[in-house]
Amino acid sequence: MFRKFSRDLGEQQTETLQLMLDFFSKHNLNPSEDLGPNMKTLEGTISKRINVIIAIIRDIEKRQTKPTLAMLQLLFQESPQKQPLLVEKRKPSVEIEKTAYSETQHKNEILQKKVFQWQTITTSILDKVAISRTSFGKIQLRLLMSPKELQDIKTKIEKL
């Protein structure tokens, strides 16, 4: 029977015997004693642990879960009824529309004047650009403008 047990474990007989001895010493078991008292003490300790866990869960229910549930129920029961907001919708009057239209028209005219001024400045600059070629073949652009004219253009741009 021991040989069959050793083969089932896939170990040699000496290794199987060593495993059995380690098991007995690890669990404080004596082969000559009856396992009844040891199993009963093990069963007793397990049932004590289960009772402790049950007590902890009941304590959590009493101190945390039920008060939280009660608070949430109170919050939802005592909440005031929400009333819809009544907002009066007014159509803009004709005068307001006319003033808004005249303001946008005025802004549009100002912007058109600025665009025209920018166009005149850029065309005046581009008219004074000349193409010159160096002896090495590179093309360069030269600005045929006096420093005073350049300063005048800068002041015009700053005023815009």
Order of helices and strands: HHHHEEH
State the helicity in percent bands: over 70%
Number of helices: 5
Low-confidence stretches: none
Overall number of domains: 3
From the N-terminal CA to the C-terminal CA, the straight-line distance is 109 Å
| Secondary structure tally: strands | 2
Q: How does the major sheet shape up?
A: 2 strands, antiparallel
Write the layout of secondary structure elements.
Elements (H helix, E strand, L loop, with lengths): L1 H8 L3 H14 L8 H43 L16 H34 L1 E5 L5 E5 L3 H13 L1
Antiparallel strand pairs: 1-2
Brief synopsis:
It contains five helices and two strands. It has helices at 2-9, 13-26, 35-77, 94-127, 147-159; strands at 129-133, 139-143.
Can you describe this structure?
InterPro entries: BfmA-like_N (IPR048012). The protein is built from 5 helices and 2 strands. Strands 1-2 form a two-stranded antiparallel sheet. It has 3 domains: about 1-35; about 35-80; about 110-160, no CATH class. With about 160 residues, it is mainly alpha-helical. The radius of gyration is 49 Å and the shape is elongated. Helix content is about 70%, strand content about 5%. The longest helix is centred in the middle third of the chain and has 43 residues, at about 35-75.
Defining traits:
70% helix; elongated; 160 residues; mainly alpha; 5 helices; BfmA-like_N; 3 domains; two-stranded antiparallel sheet
